[in-house]
């Protein structure tokens, strides 16, 4: 499988590494920053360009979109129109309206389109699907996402925004919370209504880069779910006491299902853990499938999907549902639009 990548920033490194580790061909990397494009290409032995159009004019089995969030729609739409199968990093776009347009474009062209919610691919997460089906009528849920952020980072972010107020930046809710919203929708079903939401900001970062986010959701199945996300300087908390405190908890009449996810860039050291309390058995089950690199698993499954196999990769419709929920929660918090990384009240 030949893969070309648009974007040569931090996340592109993980994609390039996985492509090469699986023995696929990394053909071409494009980034408007010449130094970034050349550095990534030199490291992984491929060609580079500063022209996205040039990359899209070249044949490939897959184009990976790894540009900043605000540019996902433009690049992904151009890749689909050029006839490519696409893997787009999450979130699919920064506007539910743009996501809706992308859904229609993918339907019209019929091109394969995958979105990088790769946490759902881990075998332990797939086991959680079984656990969550055994809790009976769901009554409540919790989505918790806390990631360690040094205090010194916030003045730097605020200074960057002051110097470049148009910078396409996002905060904790989009960058860290979107993965878990995808899992929530997958295992608990659609959201009926956002009951309440609040965002908190560090000085100088409002309204673009949120530091904390809370939301209360009414699910179509009747349950109430609390969502809480934060970037805080707490480095000794969480299941592994490394600052990564991330879980989904679904509570029903017959049981409690819990999924502890892991630091995404440490697949060789950490594995998710799924747990179930089964009230009928008065017993607890636990499952840990071991170390699996989610990025590599993503490309393994894409190769299968391009051959016609059914795989659990996130579809364009599923990614649209996440983007719609993100917009609805921002709106409930008084932030009324999220278009191309620009936030307005």
Automatic annotation (TrEMBL):
InterPro entries per record: Gfo/Idh/MocA-like_OxRdtase_N (IPR000683), Gfo/Idh/MocA_Oxidoreductases (IPR051450), GFO_IDH_MocA-like_dom (IPR055170), NAD(P)-bd_dom_sf (IPR036291)
Residues of the GFO/IDH/MocA-like oxidoreductase domain: 133-255
A Pfam short name: GFO_IDH_MocA
Secretion signal, residue range per the UniProt entry: none
Gene3D superfamilies: Dihydrodipicolinate Reductase, domain 2, NAD(P)-binding Rossmann-like Domain
Gfo/Idh/MocA-like oxidoreductase N-terminal domain segment(s): 2-117
UniProt-recorded name of the protein: Gfo/Idh/MocA family oxidoreductase
Organism: Cohnella silvisoli
């Amino acid at each position: 499988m030949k893969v070309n990548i648009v974007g040569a920033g931090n996340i592109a490194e993980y994609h390039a590494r996985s492509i090469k580790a699986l023995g696929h061909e990394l053909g071409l990397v494009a980034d408007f920053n010449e130094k970034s494009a050349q550095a990534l290409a030199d490291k992984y032995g491929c060609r580079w360009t500063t022209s996205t159009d040039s990359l899209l004019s070249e044949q490939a089995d897959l184009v990976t979109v790894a540009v900043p969030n605000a540019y996902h729609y433009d690049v992904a739409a151009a890749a689909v129109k050029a006839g490519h199968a696409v893997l787009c990093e999450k979130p699919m776009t920064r506007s539910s309206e743009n996501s809706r347009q992308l859904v229609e474009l993918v339907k019209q062209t019929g091109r394969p389109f995958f979105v990088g919610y790769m946490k759902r691919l881990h075998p332990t997460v797939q086991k959680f699907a079984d656990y969550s089906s055994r809790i009976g009528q769901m009554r409540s849920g919790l989505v918790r996402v806390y990631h360690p952020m040094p205090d010194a980072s916030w003045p730097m972010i605020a200074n960057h925004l002051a110097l470049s107020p148009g910078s396409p930046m996002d905060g904790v809710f989009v960058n860290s919370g979107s993965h878990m919203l995808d899992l929530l929708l997958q295992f608990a079903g659609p959201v009926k209504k956002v009951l309440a939401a609040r965002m908190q900001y560090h000085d100088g970062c409002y309204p673009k880069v949120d530091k904390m986010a809370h939301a209360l959701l009414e699910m179509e199945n009747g349950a109430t779910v609390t969502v809480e996300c934060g970037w805080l300087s707490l480095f000794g908390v969480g299941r592994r006491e490394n600052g990564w405190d991330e879980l989904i908890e679904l509570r029903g009449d017959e049981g409690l299902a819990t999924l502890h996810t892991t630091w995404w860039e440490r697949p060789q050291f950490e594995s998710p853990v799924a747990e179930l309390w089964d009230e009928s058995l008065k017993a607890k089950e636990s499952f840990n499938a071991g170390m699996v690199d989610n990025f590599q698993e993503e490309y393994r499954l894409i190769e299968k999907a391009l051959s016609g196999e059914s795989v659990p990769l996130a579809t364009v419709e599923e990614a649209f549902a996440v983007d719609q929920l993100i917009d609805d929660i921002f709106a409930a918090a008084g932030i009324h639009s999220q278009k191309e990384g620009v936030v307005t009240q």
